[in-house]
Amino acid sequence: MRETTKLNVGIDEFLLNQFDRLIELKRYRNRSEATRCLIRDSLFRTRPEHVDKDDKEMVGTVALLYDHHGPAVSEKLTRCKDAYSKFITNVLNVHLDDQNSLEVLVVRGETQTINRIANELIRIKGIKNGNLVMIPAGDGLN
Q: Rounded to two decimals, what is the model's pTM?
């Protein structure tokens, strides 16, 4: 286990009260735990490829919103999913209404691979919106 270093932070009362509400809402054990989680999240969102060079395996979700009546969208999605089946561990498809579907793919692999898969899926003509969320698969951000 890595050594822990103490950190003193000055914060105004209003912001601290908001932070304490967040801690309660998310059920963190204490301010230190909440602060560590926020720092990890911020570091990861800013530069995920540099968070921990020893832990390159990532897991993520790719969420796609599309018109399931659109021309060939489903077929293009299927071809792309088949091409990357080694990295896609699960797929959830929900018909939201008469026209729109949400597809969520769980992906696992190196950061660059997951980014490439997500970008290719999101670029498919007919995808209205897409989003990738990734986190380290192992102990990269303990």
A: 0.67
